[in-house]
Each structure stands twice: as C-alpha cells, then as structure tokens.
Prior knowledge:
The complex is a heterodimer.
Chain A: H1 4-25, H2 30-35, H3 37-47, E1 63-66, H4 72-82, H5 123-136, E2 143-148, H6 156-166, E3 172-178, E4 181-182, E5 185-186, H7 187-190, H8 196-203, E6 206-210, H9 216-229, E7 236-241, H10 264-272
Parallel strand pairs in A: 1-2, 2-3, 3-7, 6-7
Antiparallel strand pairs in A: 4-5
Helix pairs in contact in A: 1-3, 1-4, 1-10, 3-4, 3-9, 5-6
Chain B: E1 10-11, H1 12-26, E2 30-34, H2 38-41, H3 44-49, E3 54-56, H4 61-72, E4 77-83, H5 84-87, H6 92-100, E5 107-111, H7 129-134, E6 140-142, H8 147-159, E7 164-167, E8 172-173, E9 189-192, E10 197-201, H9 205-218, E11 223-227, E12 230-232, H10 236-246, E13 249-256, H11 261-272, E14 277-282, H12 292-298, H13 303-315
Parallel strand pairs in B: 2-3, 2-4, 4-5, 5-7, 6-7, 10-11, 10-13, 13-14
Antiparallel strand pairs in B: 1-8, 6-12, 9-11
Helix pairs in contact in B: 1-8, 4-6, 9-13
Amino acid sequence: MANNKELNDLVSQVRRDIVRMVHKVSSGHPGASLGCTEFFVALYNEIMDLKEGFDMDGSNEDIFFLSNGHISPVFYSVLARKGYFPVDELNTFRLIDSRLQGHPTTHEGLPGIRVASGSLGQGMSVAIGAALAKKLNGDDHLVFSLHGDGELQEGQNWEAIMYAAGNKVDNLISTVDRNRQQIDGGTEDVLPLGDVAEKFRVFGWDVLEVEDGNDLQQVIDGLNEAKRRTGKGKPVCIILNTVMGNGVDFMMHTHAWHGKAPNDEQLENALAQNPETLGDY
Amino acid sequence: MTTYTDQGKQDTRSGYGAGMTELGRTNPNVVALCADLVGSLKIETFIKESPERFFQIGIAEANMMGIAAGLTIGGKIPFASTFANFATGRVYDQIRQSIAYSDKNVKICASHAGITLGEDGATHQILEDIGLMKMLPGMTVINPCDFNQTKAATLAIAEYHGPVYLRFGRPKVANFTPVDQKFEIGKALLLSEGTDVTIIATGHLVWQALIAAETLENQGVSCEVINIHTIKPLDEKAILDSVKKTGCVVTAEEHNYLGGLGESVSRTLATHHPAPQEFVATQDTFGESGTPEQLMDKYGLNNKAIEAAVLKVMKRK
C-alpha cells in the first residue's frame, strides 16, 4: 500500500504524461483526464485488488471499465505506470500502428483494456455483465466503472442503471465524473442533468458523494466507503465532483480543454505546474 | 435430382430453443439473455432447467448487448436473443463497439427475421439485418434453413470463439435436413447436383429452391441446389465450383437484394468467375402486414419466383 506522498508524486507525473501525450499529437482529451487523475491513481494503486500481469477474464481480481473512453490519456498513463505495459509506449499515443489508440480498445491487445469505449453510454452495461459473470463464478471481487456526467445523456445508461438496481448487482461500483462540462458547454446548459445522485437513488442505487474529487484523500476515503457498501443488495454509485482540467490552471473550470491540445508554450506552462517526480517517458 | 422429405413443419426458432435446451444441459458456460420475448424465442426449457444462467433484461436491447459483452469477461458464452429487428438495427453501435470491435464471444440470436414475421408488419420485420451484420469486421453470419439445421447451428456456434449473428424465423416451414447432420460453420451444403443452373439459397428459401428445382427438372432444366447457411465467411469454393460447371446462378433469400447473400455471391463471381446472376430477394422495400405465405408470394420470395429467375438467367448465358 502506497503512502500519500508516493501517490501525490504519481498524480503529478500522470498529469505531465497527459499533457505531453496530447501535445505531441496535437489531439486528444486533456480536460477530464486531468480532472480524473486522482481517481485513477487511487483506484489502481490503493483500492483495487489486482493480480500480477493481465488476462482478459480478470478472474479473482477487481476489474475496471472506462466508459468515457476519450479520457484515454489518464487511463494509459496510470496503466503504464502500474506496469501493464512499458511507460515508453506512451510516446506512441494516437500514432499509426500504436496499441494506444485515440480511444481505448482491445483490438490491438493493449494490456489493461477489456472492452472498447468511446462511443458513449455503453460501459455500464458491460460492467454489469462482468459483475454478473463474477457472481456466477463465485468470484467475490468487485467491478468498477467510470462514466462522464455528460455521458449520462445517453439513454443506454438508464437501462443499465435500472437493471443493476432491479437485479441487485451489488458487486459493482460505478463512479460518475461530475465535472459539469461537456463539449458544447456546461452540462446544465447543454442538457440539464439535475440532481444526479438523487436520480441514481430513486432508481435504487446506494449513492455516496465525494465533495472534492481532486482531493486524493477524499477520493480514497470515498472509494473505500463504496467498497464497504458492496454486497448489501444494491449497486453503489459515487458522485465524484471534479474540476475539468484540474492541476493546470488555465485549463480549469471550462469546457474549452475538453478535446484540445496545448501548444508549445502552454505545454511548458502546464509542466511547470506539475513537477517531474518519477521520470518523464 | 436428390429429393428431400419434409419430416413435419416446424419453426426454426423452435430449433434454436431445442439447441439452447441441449446447451443448458451440456455446456455450463452458456448463458442466455432475452429482452422480454422468452416465449417467442422458445427458451422456456433452458430457463426452467438453468434459471441461474438466464438473464431477463427487459425491453432494453442496448443494455442486453452490453451485458452480453461483459459476461464474456469471466468466460461465459452469452446467447443474446430477441427479434432480428431489435437484435441488429436497434443496437448496431452497441454490437459494433462492445462486441465486434472488442472481439467478444457473444452469440446474437435473432428470431422473426425477414418478412415472414407476418401480421405485425414492417416495424417488426427486418430485411436489412444480414447486410448490417456481415459488414462488421469479424462477425460470422448464419441463416439456417429449417428446424434441424437451426438446432445444429445453435450447438455449433457455442463451440466457436467469436461474435456470431444467428438468424432464424417465426413461421412453421418444412423440416428436411437430416436430424443428425453436423453443422460446419462456413461450409456450404450441396443439396442436389445439376448442370444447367446453380441455385444458391439461404434460410426459408432453401426449401422453396428444392421445390422449384423439382418443377424445373420436370421441364428438362437441371438445377444444382446449394444451401448457404453461413453467409460470412462465405464458402466461395463451393459457389465457384458449381458456377464453373453450370455457367449461371440464381440466389434466393428472405432479405433485401442490397446487402444480402446475393451481393456476397456477386462479389465472389465478379472477382473470380463472372457469370449471369438473378436475385430472388426483396427489391429495396419495406414489408407489410399479411400472412407469411401471402407476403412471400407478393414480394417474390417463393418457388415460383425462383423458377422465373432460373428461366431468365438461363437466357443470359
């Protein structure tokens, strides 16, 4: 188990990875990647019970699904730094012949990825299926999933939310990244999501909120609390209140950096705010 | 020509149900999903005998496809079933991303395919599903012709690793293939040898092709009849071997001529051995309400349509 100094160092390094990856190819999605950095670092290094190596079935370990696949930079960085594949491979993000496709995919065989995502709204259904398989197999490990808040505008989520509660899929922890931003603007301006926690609650989920999803300790505490609530007949939802672009001041509190890469000068500025701790790739 | 005997009319969906019953007893990794159409899909026995391996999804086909994809992670072999329309067009992107692109071992099992769903009309009929599914990289597309073949196909796809679209139907039709015939994915069946024309048929049209061939035989036209149950991967060798001998071909399917078996055969011929071809298929149209027989007649999907197509294509040789 890592201490918070080590985890904070990792957070800083992952942020550097994110902005360097998208800068190099002048494309990709830094905003919500930065906003979810603490979540990914905590999940993979503090929360999930993981085996050595990777196999598709993920038997006898916790498994994770990223539904909002566009935040692949943070996913790739955390997977690489966890040892799923060489950190140097981050250099190939979005390039031809790379395993690090623009959106995550199993197609190129990248360890750590169990389903393609990018076309939004599909991840919770897949996570439910994997959770049901664990129950059938007598595997008491957990399934985690992450969803963008804007993504909840896709109707399939609500089919899945209804199913998971109605069928007591209580080995599932689905987190909603509530950064209140989407491509065209604020979520409440584009298509109001309203009280997301209450919506999950009335569908029958056990819901908890992390007030500051960019406070590492709060994220860890929230995820641990969610784990404690599993196995009690209800799927568990975490509303993770984050700031899009967190850790790079000029990217914060705006949808402008949802899918935009920094230029050279902006990259330097971003890197200056996030010290190199574990070595750049 | 070789003659076949109808062992008694049955619906192909019941062949699926019988296959699922057997898989429930023999393969513990097989799980079944359904979107509120258990009775129509004939899987009551599977559910009764293996309730823990059945997932009632409700009227939520998109969620069903995603859950099926997830169940493969952990080694399950999900058979996700509903009407063909809701199993394909409604959930194309879910199949594309979560199943096909992700190479998940999901079996999409679709009943009430084609126009013979009948009285419910065009909202529930689909004549585009073969095209939709065969365009997906890595997807296997199977359209068996009778009860026995549908049951055999259901058993066979459980043994094959990869996404499969299995298409079958509602009406009771002739059951004529041998009860113990092994189903080989991607392997065409030569039903009757002939020299003047090749009739390549799939699904419900195979029996119609045999009736047409018998009538034509009596008129002095020697027909070779091939049952293509697997549209993708297509048995190109069987097609080419036959057409090299006969010099012309009629394809027959309960599907739009755009995107169906006929087009796959055309591509094969155009690439390797160009030959005249006629298409017995719907002509880029939606269906409508009616009995299966009325619809097959009105939309030119029966033995008479095949006979006319044979006489036409023979003149083009």
